[in-house]
Amino acid sequence: MDSINNHIAKFSVFVDSNVLHQEFLRDLILRLSTKNTFIVRWSDDVLHELRVSLSKKYHLLTIKL
Fold first, then answer.
1. Beta partners for residue 14, in sequence order
2. Which helix (H) or strand (E) holds 5?
3. How many Cα neighbours within 13 Å face the side chain of 12?
4. What is the rounded distance in angstroms from the CA atom of residue 62 to the CA atom of residue 55?
5. How confident is the model at residue 11 (pLDDT cuts 50, 70, 90)?
6. Pairing with 38, which of 14, 30, 31, 54 sits 20 to 30 Å away (CA)?
7. Distance CA 8, CA 33 (A)
8. How much is the pLDDT for 59?
């Protein structure tokens, strides 16, 4: 199984803010990445979009991630 994980870990997964915003998907993807299933990637633009979305959802002025 370790050899399979080592091979798979070479793959990257780019996540958008809609994935990070949903608790179940975010938890699943981040937990799988800690098992070296793949490498999670996102951009500064994705984090900015997530901040804006969460700020609106929770009626906050700013959220620092």
1. 41
2. helix 2-8
3. 5
4. 6
5. confident
6. 54
7. 11
8. 80
At residue 16, what are phi and psi to the nearest 5 degrees?
-95, 170
| Matching residue, tokens 């959220």 | 63
Report DSSP state, residue 9.
T
| CA-to-CA dists, residue 43 to 1, 5, 6, 50, 58, angstroms | 31, 25, 24, 11, 23
Q: What's the whole-model pTM score? A: 0.68
- Residue 47 identity: L
Q: 48 is written with which tokens?
A: 């900015």
- Which phi and psi angles does 41 have, rounded to 5°? -130, 145
Q: Each residue of 13-65: pLDDT tens digit?
A: 899 999 888 889 989 999 988 988 888 999 999 999 998 888 888 887 665 55
